[in-house]
Amino acid sequence: MKMFRGKKVLGAIAFAAALFSSTAIMSTALSSSAMAWTLEEAAQPYKGTSIKAIFLDRPGYAAAIKLLPEFEKKTGIKVNYEIVPYENSRERQVLDFTGGGEIDVVLTDVVWIGEFAGNGWLEPVKTFTDDAKLADPKLKLDGFFPILLESFGTWGDEVYGLPFDNYSGLLYYNKCTLQQAGFDKPPATWDELLNVYGPKLTDQANRKYAFALQSRRGETQSADSFMRVLWPFGGSLLDDKFKSNLNSKESQAGLKFRQDLMKIMPPGIVDYDHAEAVNALAQGNVAMITEWSAFYSTLADPTKSRITDCLAVATEPAGPAGLKPALGGFSLGVNAQSSDAKKAAAWLFIQWVTSEEMAKPYVEAGGVSGRTTIYKDADIQKRYPFVQPMVASWDGGVPDFRPRFAEWPELSEVIAEWGTRMMLGNVSIEDGAKSIGAKVEEVLGQAGYYKGDKPLRK
Amino acid sequence: MAVATAGGTVPAASHTKPKRLVSAWHLVGLLAIFLFAVFPFYWMVATSLKTQAEALASPPIWVFTPRLDNYFEVLFNRDVLSSLTNSIIIAVSTTILAVGLGTPAAYALARFEFKSKEELWFWFITNRMLSPIVVALPIFLMARTLNLIDTHIVLILVYLTFNLPIVVWICTDQFRGVPKDLDEAARLAGASRFTIFWRIALPLAMPGVAVSAIFSFIFSWNELLYALVLTRNVARTAPVAATSFMSGYDLPWGEIMATGTLIVLPVIVFALIVSKHLVQGLTMGAVK
Amino acid sequence: MSSGTQPDGSGKPRVFPTLWNNGRAAFAFLAPAVVALAMIGIFPTVFALVNSFRRYNLAKPRDPTPFIGFDNYLTVFNDASFWGALGRTFTFLITVVPIQLALGLIIALLLHKPGLSGFKLLARLSLVIPLATAPAVAGLIGRLVFNRDFGVANAVLALVNAGPVEWLGDTTNAFIAVALMDIWQWTPFCALVLLAGLTMVPNEVEEAARLETRSRWQIVRYVQLPFLLPSITVILILRTADILKMFDTVFTMTRGGPGAATELVSVYIQRVGFRVFDQGVASAQAILLLILTIILARLYIKFVYREI
């Protein structure tokens, strides 16, 4: 599904237009150096360079693709992208890193940062920020939500990527259905969702269900389903010593809660991926879902959703341990194995697409920016109802919602397998948790965490 | 079963059914076979001609205005055209290579006497039964070292693991059917061994060679696992392209089925051409 | 054509013993194919064998890859998921193959029965379609047909007031759905192989039997079956090998899910090798599978090529 953009030559007019934007920061830049830093000038040596990016089939990437021509016109850098299914995207990139490949702009899921950075596959951002020719004085790393930069982009104390496609778990609901059932606000707690809202909104005979929790085997099961029910109940995957915490009272309570949810969810929920869950709400078959903020644009799109007038958004319900919403998202980083020219070109692209200046166009094109300032914009707040709950979630989220160490993908496979089997009732919650725990400890033991070889970093 | 007589029904035994009824059941059975075999294929083609809304309609729509939009979309915007081109290049090359290497070997197995012939022969057939995953792991590592990932050549070579056995087996059979006398007469006339093989035995064995070539082509064209592991986008084959639509976010069923149809249709044509030899090709000559 | 059995020196007196008893000439003809197959078959297998004794994870390029003896094999023996996948593969085998054989036999008998030649031709040609369909595409078709909401399987069930069935989201049903796709794809193969067997029954024998008995079953059982035994053996062994290899259909249809409900052994090994990237353990699993395959191939030779 690769698509190539035609080579575009920068125009003098675009150059001039760029000069007149954000004058306040410009003046400081002007005072510190004789000439202001401009993207056009910085890109001059890399004109004609083409770089390769890995994108997903999600709104945030469609938004970036819409903006691409502007970048290509300004810089003369050609950005080729390949859209891969999320489930194949880590595989695809790891094979590329280990087999020698052509990816320059690396897409790092929050849970891969430990693996990608730890293996030296990502170039530290410092390489570029130290280079006055490449670093935009307006870069402002502290302009990102701290939790996003920390979680998606940082490993150890080193920054490797800039937050690009940013998610918080949110509660999307059909306010018309809720009103008909006599609820004028969404459930505040998970318990309420199950016991108060659940029975009233579920009508099995007509195949209407209160809730859908996407649980398909894969990262969807481990991140969206399994981990989502641990944290709010005070549970977690690992304890402080990196031993399994799944058989603790709190973790078990969360997992048991998930089994109880099955009563108010469509049958076959273990085969629901994001597409199915979002579609179930969009078609009016399900009253509530907890999904990533990025799916707002799909749900609000009248060609894909029948409930645009009834769509409402809130933070995820709280559990006994408080509000612990799912955290997810992707940073863009530079492949450490790319040539210097491609590295520079890739950096210029990443810096541009995640910049404060591009935040508004990016959001308007359907993306979710990781910049704080954009969400203070009253106009944006009004037009995008998901903004407020999302910002609230990011202000109080768990940075290591899922451990981000290199072993996560392997653990995720284990959790995905046993988690779905638990839901299907093929194995009891307790035994399933034990099986996962044993395997998790085996993997982490082999990795050397218990011998003190490795810092306990997640 | 009724004994066929000119009169139509057989009155003799009490449990004998009238012939017309038997024929009716026979006809129903044959039509059931036809429906069973064709329906899933029909459903794929029908879906490929629907819009996304029609494809997702519940209950499914049976009558609709067919559109070719999905085909234009996948061929030109989704780049399935280049995947199909890759598939053709790879399948044709590996077939030529398999026939080029396999027919002399088949000739030798059919004609010559030598030690461990059985073992050699056994080894060929084992490859037919080998799970690709066994070879895919090390081949991936080797291809990586040799910088052959995402190239046509690596698939062309790897596909020999199943194509060579096909060619060797079908052609060994075929060569055995060619009388030795011709070879021996030619030898008396002073022809070299290679000339005998090339000018006499091979032309006579052509039907078998053609069948094995078509089977090699079909198997290579349909293969997924190796292609999934060994290609990325430059050498990506059509079956891999078909799976790449499954993004978990949006499933464009019309486009997926259009790609499926583009993959399957040429093979059906080929398979119909060799339908008489289908069994022989699939069992490698064990049953004829 | 000849008998189709394994190559042997027929008892015919040789006109030119030196012409065919020449090892060097045979070698010249065989060498290219043997070298090629050795390069892409044996060499990688040896490499896999070596890797199966090493700790080797592709996703951990900075870790050493020491030889660890039989540790990987021990891991495999203690891996419930691997044995689960292998067991599932055999369950799949004993589920689909008898059905394919039975349906195949019925189809073959219908195609063998005299009369209605036009319809018979049509039915026989239609059998080519499932066989020619790429297994990967068959899986995609399966995912569409068995969709819970807009799949045609549930629509057909609705006609008889049954369903809707949750096909791919339920452990048992997903297994059945994959099995149904496999039955669609491979029953024609069984039918055609059995049909070939039926045509070997001499006409006179069949006619004579029909005069003896009117029971269709008696004819099948005592007259036709003995001629079908070789075909059935071929089907059993090839289907066994194909199901051990089965990957494409499952990968595109369910990816082994839900849970591990449809995770057959080749799908599982692919997951370990290319998602967990544990080349050591995956190689050990692959070697075990290879051994199983060789045993089966030996059986193939013994029953099919020796005794027919």
TrEMBL record, chain A:
Family assignment from sequence similarity: Belongs to the bacterial solute-binding protein 1 family.
Coiled-coil region list: none
Cellular component aspect of the GO annotation: periplasmic space
Annotated SUPFAM superfamilies: Periplasmic binding protein-like II
This protein's record includes keyword Transport: yes
Record flagged with keyword Signal: yes
Compartment annotation: Periplasm
Annotated source species: Skermanella stibiiresistens SB22
Primary residence: periplasm
UniProt-recorded name of the protein: Sugar ABC transporter
Domain of life assignment: Bacteria
Signal peptide: 1-36
UniProt keywords, alphabetically: Signal, Transport
Pfam families in alphabetical order: SBP_bac_1
From TrEMBL, chain B:
Topology of this chain in the membrane: Multi-pass membrane protein
Residue stretches spanning the membrane: 24-43, 88-109, 121-141, 153-175, 196-221, 256-274
Annotated ranges, domain ABC transmembrane type-1: 84-274
Superkingdom of origin: Bacteria
One annotated GO biological process: transmembrane transport
Keywords: Cell membrane, Membrane, Transmembrane, Transmembrane helix, Transport
A cellular-component GO term for this protein: plasma membrane
Signal sequence annotation: none
Keyword Nucleotide-binding: no
Keyword Chaperone set for record: no
Subcellular location(s) of the protein: Cell membrane
Homology family: Belongs to the binding-protein-dependent transport system permease family.
Annotated protein name in UniProt: ABC transporter permease
Organism: Skermanella stibiiresistens SB22
Lineage: Bacteria, Pseudomonadati, Pseudomonadota, Alphaproteobacteria, Rhodospirillales
TrEMBL record, chain C:
Keywords: Cell membrane, Membrane, Transmembrane, Transmembrane helix, Transport
Gene3D superfamilies, sorted: MetI-like
One of the GO biological process terms: transmembrane transport
Pfam families: BPD_transp_1 (PF00528)
Membrane topology: Multi-pass membrane protein
InterPro entries reported in the protein's UniProt record: MetI-like, MetI-like_sf
Start and end residues of each ABC transmembrane type-1 domain: 86-300
Coiled coil: none
Spans through the membrane: 25-50, 90-111, 123-145, 152-169, 175-198, 219-238, 282-301
Principal location listed in the UniProt entry: membrane
Gene Ontology CC: one annotated term: plasma membrane
CDD domains: TM_PBP2 (cd06261)
Compartment list: Cell membrane
Family statement drawn from the similarity comment of this UniProt entry: Belongs to the binding-protein-dependent transport system permease family.
Protein name: Sugar ABC transporter permease
Top-level taxonomy: Bacteria, Pseudomonadati, Pseudomonadota, Alphaproteobacteria, Rhodospirillales
